[in-house]
Specification:
With 309 residues, the protein is of the alpha/beta class. It is built from 7 helices and 13 strands. It is globular and about 50 Å long.
Length: 309
Amino acid sequence: MKPTLLVLAAGMGSRYGGLKQMDGLGPHGETIIDYSIHDAVEAGFGKIVYIVREYFKADMEKAVYKKYAGVKAIDGEPLEFAFVTQELDKIPAGFTLNPERVKPWGTAHAMLMAKDVIHEPFAVINGDDFYGKDSFHILGDWCRAHENTKGQYCIIGFELDNTLSENGTVSRGICYYDASKTLTGIVEHLEIGKDADGTVYGINSVTGEKHALDAKALCSMNMWGFTPDYFDLSEAIFTDFLKVNINEPKKEFYIPYAVDRIIKEGNGSCEVLSTPSHWFGVTFKEDRPGVVAKFASLVEEGVYPSPLY
């Protein structure tokens, strides 16, 4: 069984100032998604599903099919691709879209767009985050081990210290779990950074308190593994979400919210898997030079070929 990689690439890039998904950051114009797909293929993934917006779907498809022509999965079969769109009006019947809404419905809504094209264990990643080879191998092994199972999910937890930015503070969801590494909750922490003495600190979004954080605490970078039954469960939760929030123009339906509901209602469990990989990504334009330098260094070290494809 070859798992599927679901790439969340519908973000508008408003803070970055453009489409991060198509920005060439590698030595030969490779995007972050290109490196993620390279790592996923090495880890045994056989199909790539992109969540995009309608206004750039055609350009994305053209670029992908041109770039990956001839790329094969690890078993020698052609790599499969599918493109689905996330739009504001793609909501369950019976709801009327608030005309004031311009913001997408969030990551969990984006995932639901792929319900009809994914029928096997699958991974979810952001299109503008670099996760590292180890992370994809861990996730690929998990997906293959959970073929024909239900209610089994996982999250790849990155050590907090491996996700901090050199350009300022960040927000991260800290994972909480029991002795068996089963997720019990994710708490968003804001303005995470380092003091002069190296102490990591952040503001708990629930309590509003600023406090020291464990640099080795595992945090979410939106890299997940799911069995396909997740779609039906999440769709029902989204309907409940809309009953309360259909007229709220800025409320979003996030993956951690859906997973938390599934866990609390006893319909599934989520394993926390740690990775030694270092995350990096682009949020603001100021992040771009550092990411370009990191890819150049990885190529120089022989981690990646250049050009990648």
